Automatic annotation (TrEMBL), chains A, B:
Keywords: DNA-binding, Transcription, Transcription regulation. One of its GO terms (molecular function) is DNA-binding transcription factor activity. Residues 35-54 bind DNA. Residues 12-72 form the HTH tetR-type domain. Gene3D superfamilies: Homeodomain-like (1.10.10.60), Tetracycline Repressor, domain 2 (1.10.357.10). This is TetR family transcriptional regulator.
Amino acid sequence: MPAQPNPERRNERSRRAILDALYDLAVEKGYAKVTIEAVATRAGVGKPTIYRWWASKGAVALEVINDRIGTAIDFPNTGDIVADLTSQITAVTGIMTGDLGRLYRGVIGECQTDPKLAQELRATVLEPRIRFCTARLDAAVADGQLRTDLPTRTMVDVIYAPVYYRWLLSAGDAEVRGCPALVPEIIAGLLPR
Amino acid sequence: MPAQPNPERRNERSRRAILDALYDLAVEKGYAKVTIEAVATRAGVGKPTIYRWWASKGAVALEVINDRIGTAIDFPNTGDIVADLTSQITAVTGIMTGDLGRLYRGVIGECQTDPKLAQELRATVLEPRIRFCTARLDAAVADGQLRTDLPTRTMVDVIYAPVYYRWLLSAGDAEVRGCPALVPEIIAGLLPR
């Protein structure tokens, strides 16, 4: 006799369809022009299904971002902090200058006038990665590769800021892709003294 | 006999009314909710008057920002580059965490999905100030206070990035106001070697 439909699996199928629909529509039209109606239609679900799982279009987009980034920008630890940050930031700038980056910029744009979404962005996308980065920097401090008198949380801000600054202020893709080359200059201010 | 109305002066009065209307409405409702219709009504002008002088709401907002910043964040030159950058960045973070900063964030948000406005932001708000900053850094290089082997244009990115990073990624007002204290740490990587 045929198995009963598995409600969990059906949910996962709808979730996947919704995430893919939002991503595809954002690539096609630009994030600002994507509506929840269009996502629902493309995904073959009703709007209430989307709103049962997410508070807003921005919330769906944050899940798309995390889902698609996956492990692509995890922090390596080869023992050389400059090399590791350079390769990790190279991966970040690769994402920023591609289709997923355009979607991510759209969401960050929305956050500028939506404080609730901005806090969700911090909690779900930024803070987990800041914690991983801090852990990698802590290891470098313990190895004697970085100074001990500045919190590693502050070092994260100084190291990652130029990437976001050039990207969000439209300095151009070439400038964004030039950020990994700045790591040695920035680290020069963070060396043991 | 009464003088003919001066069209230049009338234009300046309308311009002032339009800029003030957009600023006041943005403070009251938030930039995202401001419409050109509402600006026109508040300023007592027709929509065509606004569109004769500006291409979009964002373009009006950029003029409001430049107009209200005025000389508040001009670059001092006391001869001490760390002191001068610290006081200039203190002025910048004061603006960012106030009403004008909220409007500016709204426009930067809009720029994330509007490349034309983003280029206008760079040309009218950012680039003129980057040139002033570069000139101040060039003077510091000539004084032997900064290294000679890194373009001062790149130094600007490294020095100003944390301010925008904390501000646009909603780290909170206290973190933004903490940026001037980072200047010595950042400059440590930019000293003569």
